[in-house]
Design brief:
This protein is mostly beta strands. The chain has a domain at 41-135. It has one helix and eight strands. The chain is elongated and about 55 Å long. The relative contact order is 0.19.
Length: 138
């Protein structure tokens, strides 16, 4: 055995718990943990835009959260619409369930973020739906 390996083996044999962390060890003293990130604030009205890819026309779609909205053959049900607090970077998010009356199968069901539209894309051959924002009322 090489001298370095022998030294390492001797150190490990002499203090087997030296490298292991005990679960009851207290964390080092210091400042309190930072508060949780600012919460999202619910809003009762959603603003979406629909694109008909065939005619290249856009349509503004607005309505209350929880009531179905219609665009072409699509039915959009917004389960939640939230915004960041005024003291945080502006952003909005909505949980959408989108189904097509002409296509059977699992509907689109996901969060859409205003600041990151590519994270959750509704894929449809004829229509596109995008979040524009969430607001307090009509």
């Amino acid at each position: 055995m090489k001298p370095r390996a022998m030294l390492l083996a001797a150190l490990l044999a002499a203090a087997p718990g030296a490298l292991a962390q005990t679960p009851d060890a207290a964390p080092p003293a210091g400042p309190e943990a930072p508060p949780a990130p600012d919460p999202w604030l619910p809003r009762p009205v959603v603003d979406l835009v629909g694109l008909d890819k065939v005619s290249a026309r856009t349509t503004a779609i607005s309505g209350p959260v929880g009531q179905p909205l219609h665009f072409g053959t699509l039915t959009v049900l917004v389960r939640a619409c939230v915004v960041r607090p005024p003291d945080a970077a502006p952003d909005a998010a909505a949980f959408l369930e989108i189904s097509d009356s002409r296509v059977s199968g699992k509907p689109f069901s996901a969060w859409m973020l205003l600041s990151e539209p590519s994270l959750s894309i509704f894929e449809h051959p004829v229509y596109d739906i995008r979040l524009v924002g969430c607001r307090a009322g009509t």
